[in-house]
């Protein structure tokens, strides 16, 4: 069974963000008070932030679903990773319903 948890501000003990020595890309380390640490690569954060910004600033978008896609060499832009979180075509209402049902399952 998956272990699922809602992370609140009070659950976070610290966040480290920057480019580690010997790396080229940003990393975000989210250290939780329960001793769990999540490390996000720059591409993951960039995709989440792009979706967040779209929802917060677009006059009609209310929800977005991103899904991991493995791109072929001819689909890739130079310098981009093979694995991308891409927006999938789905109505806002369906995503909101899926999110509500997901949260209802884990919070009950």
Task: Describe, in plain words, how this protein is organized in 3D.
With 108 residues, the chain is α+β, with helices and mostly antiparallel strands. It has one domain (11-107). Helix content is 30%, strand content 26%. It has 2 helices and 5 strands. Strands 1-2-3 form a 3-stranded antiparallel β-sheet. Strands 4-5 form a two-stranded antiparallel ribbon. The longest helix is centred in the middle third of the chain and has 16 residues, at 42-57. The two termini are 15 Å apart.
Question: Care to give the gist of this entry?
Answer:
The protein is of the alpha+beta class and 108 residues long. The chain is 30% helix and 26% strand.
Question: Which features would summarize this protein structure in a list?
Answer:
single chain, 108 residues, alpha+beta, 3-stranded antiparallel beta sheet, two-stranded antiparallel ribbon, 2 helices, 30% helix
Which strand order spans the largest sheet, edge to edge or round the barrel? 1-2-3
Count of DSSP H/I helices: 2
Low-pLDDT ranges: none
Q: Which range does the strand content fall in? A: 25-35%
- What is the total tally of β strands? 5
Estimated helix fraction: 25-40%
Shape, per Cα inertia axes: globular
- The count of domains is 1
For the sheet with most strands, the description reads:
3 strands, antiparallel
**How much is the radius of gyration in Å?**
16 Å
**What is the distance, rounded to the nearest whole angstrom, between the alpha carbons of the first and last residues?**
15 Å
Overall residue-averaged pLDDT value: 92
H/E order of the elements?
Answer: EEEHEEH
Structural class: alpha+beta
